[in-house]
Amino acid sequence: MGEAPCASLAFKARRSSAHSHSHAHSRTAETFLILHERSDFTHITTMLRSDVFSCFVFYAVLLILKMYFLAILTGQLRLRKKAFANPEDAVRHGGLEFFREDPDVERCRRAHLNDLENILPFLFLGAVYSLTGPSLPVARLHFLVFLLCRVLHSAAYLLALTPPTRSVAYVLGQVPCVSMALQVLVAVVPYA
Ligand SMILES: N[C@@H](CCC(=O)N[C@@H](CS)C(=O)NCC(=O)O)C(=O)O
Q1: Which of 5, 58, 131, 189 has the smallest set of CB atoms within 10 Å of its CB?
Q2: CB-based contacts of 124-127 (< 8 A; 24+ apart in sequence)
Q3: Which Pfam families is this protein grouped with (predicted)?
């Protein structure tokens, strides 16, 4: 799959530099290019129809929605607590004195930031891991454990649950990520 787009691009480059060639030759080139691009498309649709990849997409989208929830909650808390990150926002909502920090807003921001630190790598690792041909139940277990841990991490952060709840959620969430990272490395090490 990786070679096909490059091959297409290389062919396009060759095609554009061959202006002086005959009309018949350029028709053949055009046909080759179209067929080649269709085969790229087939690879992509095959990938999207893969059970494991679809399973990954399901959990990935839930995690992204969870992150949107934290971003929206941060904005709502700013309005409710009158604690704005920019002077122009503070002025619009009552005065420069509201250009300030609030502990609840900051807590929500930290929960969101921690999601960014952990969910973004998961999105990459999970997508690549899905392409290494794992079994569906094992892959689903990786994705589900990560999702549950991230939900628990956010809840523990927002509700200030008794330690070490948040830390445990964080560490357990790292387990499927490290497992996927190792399996991806094993799959690609022959190409290193
Ligand atoms: N950037 C994180 C790296 C380590 C981490 O993610 N720790 C977890 C479990 S203690 C956490 O919830 N950290 C709090 C945070 O990132 O705000 C930190 O500064 O703490």
Answers
A1: 189
A2: 125/177, 125/180, 125/181, 125/184, 126/56, 126/59, 126/60, 126/180, 127/53, 127/56, 127/60
A3: MAPEG
